[in-house]
Amino acid sequence: MKISLSALIVSLTFVCAQSPFFDQEEKLDQTLKKFQVTGKMEQIGRTGVPAMHAVLLNEKSILIIDKAEENEAKLDSGVSAYSTLYDTETNEYRTLLLETNTFCSAGGFLGNGTFISTGGAESRSKWKAGRGHQSIRHFKPCSDSSCFWQEFPTGKMYSNRWYPTVEQLPDGDLIIIGGSNAGTKYNTVAKNTPSYEFWPPRTDEPIQLDLLLHTLPYNLYPFVFLLPDGNLFIFASTKSIIYDYNNHTVVKELPRMPGVPRSYPLTGGAVMLPLRPENNYNVEILICGGSASPKATSEADDTCGKINLGHDKPTWEMDTFIHKRVMPDGVFGSDGSIIWVNGCQRGYAGYKDANHDPTFDPLIYHPEKPIGSRWQQGLANTDIARMYHSVALTLPDGRIWIAGSNSVDPPDIHAHYPTEYRVEYYSPPYLFKSNTRPKISHVPRIVTYDTQFNILLHLQETEKDMDKIQVAMLRPGFSTHSMHMSQRYVFLLFEVSEDFQAITINSPPNPNIFPPGQAFLIVLYDGVPCKAAEFFIEKEEKDLKI
Ligand SMILES: *[C@@H]1O[C@H](CO)[C@@H](O)[C@H](O)[C@H]1NC(C)=O
Ligand SMILES: *[C@@H]1O[C@H](CO)[C@@H](O)[C@H](O)[C@H]1NC(C)=O
């Protein structure tokens, strides 16, 4: 029998159309195309306690810290828990016992790997929580279920610090800056703690920081970034300085940022943009959102300002923030973009009907693009209001972990804007750009400064363009109150082997570029990130104690 070609095509088409998989494949293709543009938002898992604070401990565990209050998660004793350890693989949590009240505290990692939680609030006997204003709490990360909180009666801060900021320092210790000595809606002369101290202690008493005298009443949770020259950038309200914390002197006063105050409770968000060796680690700081006054009717701010500290006379370049947004969370995408989630369009950071009109849409900011085309919009949104006491963290797999929102006191899952225990994962468009992701292996556990190290690279046969490869290291930081303390993204110099199977990477030249401790190594091919691998950057290998 002779069959014409066109008849064959018709019959083949018919066969395809009849295939039980045909519809599914078509749908899969359309869904994939959509995700390539919008990314994907998924709700999986519960945190047990409201995620007021969160920090990534290793490749899969997130330490969640709330304040002493009545929560879903209970300890074996039946008393409500206020800390849990969340597993991003199983989406389950384990309750953890804390001894002092962690309400509006801060935290960071020491160079030896121990996580330190600092400060908090008054005792609450119902939850067996002692006074936490001066607390230093230790948590040594583990990869099994053996780790727990440790508090020592003798190790405390000098001052009461509610709403302080912690930044990790090049010596592997912490600086703890500002706060108030008691609970307050906004800071006052009587409650101000206008000073800083170190952990472990470096001085015999706290050191006064004048900036915090001149920025009342909106100076809580100041924005602080360690700069590659070893100084700190410190911002409160609308003012900022470059500060030498070794000699306790102001190096430079920067111009006032235009617009509304940006610090708690008129909370905006701040990110130090990715550092690059090609421009000698030039620093640009981006600050977005905020609110004009601590009133429920106050419209949130819809501007961002960026300052280039490399200029002789730095100025604020103003840009849109697309939406009005107070309490935004700005975190790094694995590709070095900045992903903004959470927050709302009206009100301020506080309890009792203080926040309204949640912002459901993520936004992505591409710092390398020219002004006017930096914002990526139209992304997959959420329908969960995440306002006061929400958090976000970048995960090693490139997704963003989003949790929290608790603007009612006591917690209430039936309130108009309920206490949120639900977790969401946002998978940005870069996770759908290609069918395959680059893979890395043989990443050393400890890397020292100013050295070279080798890893193995696994790419597809067709991926042979050197110019499409980038290498970077990420520290997701400590998330609370729109703060992402010690968050950092640094590109690294590298050389790829001729067969594309190995990379020799230059570690950061010194600890001012990336202070000691936990880091995640990322290799990108054409903007698609690998699953990041945890490693530790240290002055000496023996410094790591976990
Ligand atoms: C700051 O202190 C360091 C030592 O802590 C010292 O080496 C340096 O010279 C001082 N710089 C200034 C500008 O005083
Ligand atoms: C890390 O250093 C701190 C401060 O010296 C110390 O208290 C802590 O026990 C150390 N952690 C480990 C695991 O040795």
UniProtKB/TrEMBL annotation:
CDD domains: E_set_GO_C. It comes from Thamnidium elegans. Pfam families: Glyoxal_oxid_N, GO-like_E_set. SUPFAM superfamilies: E set domains, Galactose oxidase, central domain. Residues 1-17 form the signal peptide. This is Galactose oxidase. Residues 437-532 form the Galactose oxidase-like Early set domain. Keywords: Signal. The keyword Signal applies. Residues 69-430 form the Glyoxal oxidase N-terminal domain. The keyword Repeat does not apply.
